[in-house]
Amino acid sequence: MLDIRFIRDYPEVVKKDLEKRKDQEKLSLFNSLLKKDSEWRKVKQELDNLRKRRNELSQKINELKKQKQPINQVLKEVKEIPLKIKKLEEEELKLNSRVHSALLRIPNILHSSVPYGKDEKDNKVIRKWGKIPSFKFNLKSHGELAEDLGIADFKKASQVSGTGFYYFRNELALLNMALMNFAIDFLTKKGYKLIIPPLMLRRKPYEGVTDLKDFEDVMYKIENEDLYLIATSEHPIAAFLMNETLNEKDLPLKLIGMSPCFRKEIGSHGVDTRGLYRVHQFWKIEQFIFCKPEDSWKYHEELQKNSEEMYKKLKIPFRVVNICTGDIGIVASKKYDIEAWFPRQKSYGEVGSNANCTDYQARRLNIKYIDKKGNKSYVHTLNNTALATSRTIVAVLENYQLKDGSVKIPLILQPHLRGLKKITKSKAF
Question: 61, 83, 305, 358: least CB-packed within 10 angstroms?
Answer without folding.
Answer: 83
